[in-house]
Amino acid sequence: MKLEVAREALEAVVAHAAQAMPEEACGLLLGGGGQILEARSAANVAPDKVRHFEIDPAALIDAHRAERRGGLALLGYYHSHSSGPPEPSATDRASASGDGKVWAIVAGGEVRFWRDAETGFEELSYTLVEA
Which residues pair with 120 in a beta bridge? Predict the structure, then answer.
């Protein structure tokens, strides 16, 4: 699967990651039909925000409710790594559910996209689009 990512959404992810440093930023990827149109920041409620992320459950519930009312679909999630590459860490792999959602991981200003597949993370290619 090749994603289309709105330039504004990608820029929002990078900006949120830079602002959150040295803590991990996190949020939601919204859109539909293989297009990520919006990146919505969420509070990181993990006890150790420098080494882990946990998306605020209220943000997830709100996104699901909005989707059921006809809003953008919850396609996946994003988070940052304060050190290391923009790829799934051992912790990310251990907490993955294999639900097929897209994960965007940002580190050092670089963003890479992954699918949380049943067999593990698969890297996705993407094209930037104007929304």
Answer: 117
- Average pLDDT of the chain is 94
* Whole-number Å distance between alpha carbons of 75 and 33: 9
Burial zone of 38 (CB within 10 Å; 0-12 exposed, 13-18 middle, 19+ buried): middle
Domain at 2-129: CATH code: 3.40.140.10
The β-bridge partners of 98 are none
**pTM of the complete model:** 0.94
Least confident piece of the model among 29-33, 55-59, 96-100, 103-107:
96-100
Residue % of the chain over a pLDDT of 90 = 85
Cα distances from 74 to residues 20, 49, 66, 109, 110, in angstroms, run 22, 23, 9, 23, 22
Q: How far apart are CA 91 and CA 11, in angstroms?
A: 25
Beta-ladder partners of 62: none
Under DSSP, the state recorded for 59 is: H
